[in-house]
Amino acid sequence: MICDDLNDDVLALVGKVVFMAPTRPLVAQQIEACFNIMGIPQRDTQEMTGTMNPVVRQDAWRNKRVFFLTPQVMVNDLSRGAFHPSVIKCLVIDEAHKALGNHAYCQVVRELFKYTQEFRVLALSATPGSDLKAVQQVLSNLLVSRVELRSEESADIVPYTHARLVDKYVVKLGERLSSLRDKYLQIMEVVVRRLTSLGVLFCRNPQTMAKYAILRARDEFRQNPPQNIRRNQFGTIEGDFAFCTSLYHGYELLLLHGQRSFYNFLQGIVNGEKSYPRARAELMRSHVFVDIMEELRSQFEVFPDSKAPEDGGVSRIGDPAAPAAPPAARFYSHPKIEKLEEIVLQHFRETQSESTRVMIFSQYRDSVDEIALTLAHHAPLVRVMSFVGQSSAGRTTKGVTQKEQMKVVREFRSGGYNTLVATCVGEEGLDIGDVDLIVCYDAHKSPIRCATRFAAPRPRLFFTACAVYHVSVAAFFYHSSSALISRVSRIGFR
Description:
- The protein is α/β, with parallel strands linked by helices.
- The chain has helices at residues 2-10, 24-38, 54-63, 71-80, 104-115, 132-141, 175-197, 211-223, 234-257, 259-271, 277-284, 287-302, 335-351, 365-376, 402-414, 447-455, 473-489; strands spanning 16-20, 45-47, 66-69, 88-93, 120-123, 163-171, 358-361, 384-387, 419-422, 434-440, 458-470.
- The strands form two sheets. The chain has a six-stranded parallel beta sheet with strand order 6-11-10-7-9-8, with helices on both faces. A five-stranded parallel beta sheet has the order 2-3-1-4-5.
- Helix 8 (211-223) packs antiparallel against helix 9.
- The protein starts with a helix and ends in a 5-residue tail after the last helix.
């Protein structure tokens, strides 16, 4: 469809075509696809980046016909008057579901519409929204008047789809994590009790409480505070709400990601990185909190290789020369990691193929590091690489550049690595390549995130997707997301 638009409608006119994608790796992917599939002459094209001299970009706008760029570059050039908006005849927008609020996609379309209505918008997204309202916001912001919906069951898609087997593995917490959970709940109960006694929080059991309920209660307090509470108490109550939300985040980390992520979070509180002085002082006075910290600290001193690498970023932890720890010294901070290790090893031993690939998703970098370190013990059978985003988290976890991300993808596709452990950056439309096994270490509550995890890699003729989760919280997330994905796929458009 894009090729027909370019050849028949646009390039025959005196106008320009713009391909936009939210990141430079996706821009590079668009360029490759256009050159290899559509046959657009390279002499007519130009990749635009923010590092290019504005004068050079302005010259390119005068002399080239097809442009590949991020929306922010387009916004900047529109604001500088580098070209007249009326020369744009076709706007191709990848990852269109990002067009919400004041996103750069929305700014580009609004600016073009001020000067001309004679341009076509072609917006593409595998996950347009979790419900009809969210989809309609994207359509309105991008001025889309016609929608074409395709699913795995569509007649023109079926010939290109592949068989998929989805397995769910439910893992129990185990005695050690259950003990830590019970101790941590005692700390949470203190803060919850203070809020419930004032009548601003109504769930008294922290074990059955949800983060959404805490945030909703806080918003209700801000809008309609109880009359029996003096105004000079408001600051203390706001602090307790923030404290409670932070503690609940730690609770989720413990249940869903294990001791290491939990310990790193608590360390951030102790160091003052993830808390304010009052919360830190209260925790340090709690003998239960001190006991938890001592227990975790002694655990990671016994197994120092379980700690996160301090250099962060992309490290070659999957190098075949990586030392293997003796089996007796192996430590798993969550039973899910042991199950994941079993699944991955079983896959490689059964396939016995150099071309097979595995991709593992986890929400947090701590888990990504721990999974990668665990699988690195099985080199050269498993050649593993972590794949994270650009932003840095804290003092020790550094992000990676888009250039490094593209290098990782190339090496994964060429066989330098056969296992990729990724955060959400692996979900963002990159052409990862052929994958035989996808493992979701956590079941994300967002249906969009769940759908993109299965859609991000390019499956072979048959592939397996596994979800590994703890029996209570993550199981609820998994089934909720699955139900939402099913509902959205049934949305009809006219």
